C-alpha cells in the first residue's frame, strides 16, 4: 500500500462518514415529532457531516493535487461557528412565536422560568 | 464517492419533503437551513469529482448566504419585520 492509497482511503472515509451524517440529519428531520427536536437533529449532525466532508476534500486536494486550499479550512471554521448560532436563533424564534411542544414532552423549564419572572415583576 | 453523493442527494430529497409538508413555518426554516448546509457538501463533492479547485470559493459564499437567510427568517418569525427603523428599540 503506497502513501497515495492511504491518503485516498482516509479522504474517502471522511467524505463517506460526512455523507452518512447528512442522511442521519434527513432521517431526524422526517421522523422526529416537533420543531425543537428537529432543530437539534439539524444543527448537530448536519454541522458535523459538512465539516467531515470539507475535511476529506481538504485532505484530497492537499495530498493528491498538492494544493493547500485555505478556503476549505475557512469554510469549516465558518460553519462550525455559525451553525449553532442559526439553530439557537430558529429555536428562540419558534418558541417566541408560540410553536407548541410535542405531546410527549415532559418538561418545559423556560415556560416555568418566564412565569416566575412575570410574577416577580407583578410584585414590584 | 458515488455512494456519498447518493447519500447526500437522498438526504436533500428528505429535507425537501420536510420543507413542503412542515406543519409550522419554523419547521420549514430548519429544513431550508439544513438544505443550504448540505448544498455546501455537494459543492465540495463536485469539485472532487471534476478535480478542480475553482468551485471552492462558492463554499464560503453558500455558507454565508445560508447563515444570513436563517438569521433573517428567524428575526422575521420573532418580530414580524426584518429591518427595524426604530432606533430606540422600544417596540
From TrEMBL, chain A:
Where would you find this protein in the cell?
Membrane
Q: Do you know which InterPro entries this protein is assigned to?
A: PhaG_MnhG_YufB (IPR005133)
Q: Is Nucleotide-binding included in the keywords of this UniProt record?
A: no
Q: Which residues cross the membrane?
A: 6-30, 42-64, 70-91
UniProt keywords (A-Z) are: Antiport, Membrane, Transmembrane, Transmembrane helix, Transport
Principal location: membrane
> How is the protein disposed in the membrane?
Multi-pass membrane protein
Which family, according to the similarity comment?
Belongs to the CPA3 antiporters (TC 2.A.63) subunit G family.
This one is known as: Monovalent cation/H(+) antiporter subunit G
**Native source species:** Mesobacillus jeotgali
Gene field: mnhG
Amino acid at each position: 500500500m503506497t502513501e497515495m492509497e492511504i491518503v485516498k482511503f482516509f479522504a474517502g472515509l471522511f467524505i463517506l462518514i460526512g455523507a452518512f451524517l447528512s442522511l442521519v440529519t434527513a432521517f431526524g428531520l422526517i421522523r422526529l415529532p416537533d420543531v425543537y427536536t428537529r432543530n437539534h437533529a439539524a444543527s448537530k449532525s448536519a454541522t458535523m457531516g459538512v465539516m467531515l466532508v470539507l475535511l476529506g476534500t481538504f485532505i484530497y486536494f492537499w495530498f493528491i493535487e498538492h494544493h493547500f486550499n485555505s478556503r476549505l479550512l475557512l469554510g469549516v471554521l465558518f460553519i462550525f461557528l455559525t451553525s449553532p448560532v442559526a439553530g439557537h436563533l430558529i429555536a428562540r424564534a419558534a418558541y417566541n412565536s408560540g410553536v407548541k411542544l410535542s405531546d410527549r414532552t415532559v418538561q418545559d423549564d423556560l415556560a416555568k422560568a418566564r412565569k416566575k419572572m412575570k410574577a416577580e415583576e407583578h410584585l414590584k | 464517492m458515488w455512494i456519498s453523493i447518493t447519500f447526500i442527494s437522498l438526504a436533500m430529497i428528505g429535507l425537501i419533503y420536510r420543507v413542503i409538508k412542515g406543519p409550522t413555518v419554523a419547521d420549514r426554516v430548519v429544513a431550508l437551513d439544513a438544505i443550504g448546509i448540505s448544498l455546501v457538501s455537494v459543492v465540495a463533492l463536485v469539485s472532487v469529482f471534476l478535480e478542480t479547485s475553482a468551485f471552492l470559493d462558492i463554499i464560503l459564499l453558500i455558507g454565508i448566504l445560508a447563515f444570513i437567510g436563517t438569521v433573517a427568517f428567524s428575526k422575521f418569525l420573532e418580530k414580524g419585520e426584518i429591518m427595524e427603523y426604530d432606533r430606540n428599540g422600544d417596540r
